[in-house]
Design brief:
Strand 3 and strand 4 form a beta hairpin. The mean pLDDT is about 95. About 35% of the residues lie in helices and about 20% in strands. The protein is of the alpha+beta class. It has a five-stranded mixed β-sheet with strand order 1-2-3-4-5, with helices on both faces. The protein has one domain: 3-Layer(aba) Sandwich (Aminopeptidase), CATH 3.40.630.30. It has four helices and five strands.
């Protein structure tokens, strides 16, 4: 597997993959692909880096890492739908850690994303907090 840092040339691809990630994890984010592209541009032109995972010149997935936080923060991690459950996620994560030269990294997983939690726990992640939100509109 090859991992490389993304540039503005990959913004269209990253936006489409980010949209799929949002759909798959059932996130409430309603941004369009174009809005996600602009947001991704801001990310990668700041202290974030996006990393593309490739196998035989085919895109397997991507990660978005915040380099301002210690430990590093893995904001987004996505493996393409057609190649899931084949070990690419595990391989990509391990190789990403090697590339980042770190042994510690933080993530957030939505509470209802059971498959995501199972995946991260299988890699050795431990629960550390519960992030909560109050929305009075949901009280009725």
């Amino acid at each position: 597997m090859k991992i490389r840092v993304c540039t503005d040339d990959e913004l269209d691809l990253l936006a489409v993959l980010n949209k799929q990630l949002i759909e798959d994890e059932q996130h409430e984010n309603k941004m369009s692909v174009e809005q996600l592209r602009e947001r991704m541009k801001k990310f990668i032109n700041s202290d974030y880096k996006a990393y593309l995972f490739e196998e035989n010149s085919k895109t397997i997935g991507y990660a978005l890492v915040d380099h301002t936080r210690q430990p590093l923060y893995l904001r987004q991690f996505f493996i393409c739908r057609d190649v899931r459950r084949k070990g690419y996620g595990r391989t990509a994560f391990k190789e990403l850690l090697d590339l980042l030269k770190t042994n510690v990294i933080d993530i957030e997983v939505l509470l209802w994303n059971v498959r995501g939690m199972e995946f991260w726990r299988s890699l050795g992640f431990k629960d550390r907090s519960i992030y909560m939100r109050f929305d009075q509109r949901q009280m009725n």
